[in-house]
Automatic annotation (TrEMBL):
PANTHER family: ARYLSULFATASE D (PTHR42693:SF5), ARYLSULFATASE FAMILY MEMBER (PTHR42693)
Signal peptide: 1-26
GO cellular component: endoplasmic reticulum
Cofactors that this protein relies on: Ca(2+)
GO molecular function: arylsulfatase activity; metal ion binding
Domain Sulfatase N-terminal: from-to ranges: 5-142
Similarity field: Belongs to the sulfatase family.
InterPro entries according to UniProt: Alkaline_phosphatase_core_sf, Sulfatase, Sulfatase_N
Protein's name according to its UniProt entry: ARSD Arylsulfatase
Gene3D superfamilies reported for this sequence: 3.30.1120.10, Alkaline Phosphatase, subunit A
The entry's keywords: Calcium, Hydrolase, Metal-binding, Signal
Native organism: Thryothorus ludovicianus
Encoding gene per record: Arsd_1
Source taxon at top rank: Eukaryota
Length: 250
């Protein structure tokens, strides 16, 4: 692939099965991590991504190649084997995979590598979306996105190049399947990030923060609780979504 295209623009999309159950790991990487099978899977994925980056470097393409690495959702909390957690960890954030509103289900880091443009060690703490990949790639290729419809994504280049300091997403709508569960508002004048939850999954057991009895949380029906008025959180002060604001006191 890269020998045919190294002298002209190319797009390589790699969708990895790794860090997703059933955590298929080749024999070479089994038992290497102190974090069990999940860790083995992470190490094998790291090796695979490293092989791709090595080719980019060897062909002297690293300063002209935009590389974006991301996940489509947070860790799978319900994935267990005995006492072993097989589905990752979401840190301070509530919830996980299959939960379209809670931060643990939707908030994942992205890693960009573009030495010719983005300085090493740059940290950008702004909400973006995987929908932003399409307009970013179109801009890099010198094209324009369709003008006959509303595009939900925005190019990441202004953020990455420092010409803009804040995400163009004033609002982000968080769905579980086709059902709207939450909306995030990045209030421009104050910089505060608010989030309203219209529906949340029913955890089983209730205090577990996950849906162990179902295996994964539901998006609708008796698997969710609807909130009217919605649960409101100030994510700037409460990123763990532990304390919903009260309409009476806040």
């Amino acid at each position: 692939f890269y020998f045919r295209n190294k002298h002209r623009p190319f797009l390589l999309f790699v969708s990895l099965l790794h860090v997703h159950t059933p955590l298929i790991t080749t024999e070479k990487f089994q038992g290497r991590s102190k974090h069990g099978l999940y860790g083995d899977n992470v190490e094998e994925m790291d090796w695979m991504v490293g092989r791709l980056l090595d080719v980019i470097d060897k062909e002297d393409l690293k300063n002209t190649t935009f590389i974006y690495f991301a996940s489509d959702h947070g860790g799978f909390l319900e994935a267990h084997r005995g006492n072993s957690q097989l589905g990752g960890w979401n840190g301070i954030y509530k919830g996980g995979k299959g939960m379209g509103g809670w931060e643990g289900g939707i908030r994942v880091p992205g890693i960009v590598r573009w030495p010719g443009v983005v300085p090493a060690g740059t940290v950008i703490d702004e909400p973006t979306s995987l929908m932003d990949i399409y307009p970013t790639v179109v801009q890099l290729a010198g094209g324009t996105v369709p003008q006959d419809r509303v595009m939900d994504g925005h190019s990441l280049l202004p953020l990455l190049q420092g010409t803009e300091q804040h995400s163009r997403h004033e609002f982000l709508f968080h769905y579980c399947g086709v059902f709207l569960h939450a909306v995030r508002w990045h209030q421009k004048d104050s910089g505060t990030v608010w989030k309203a939850h219209y529906a949340t999954p029913v955890f089983q057991p209730e205090a577990s923060g996950a849906c162990f009895r179902r295996g994964i949380c539901a998006c609708f029906g008796d698997g969710v609780t609807h909130h009217d008025p919605p649960l409101l959180f100030n994510l700037s002060q409460d990123p763990s979504e532990a304390s919903p604001l009260s309409a009476d006191t806040e």
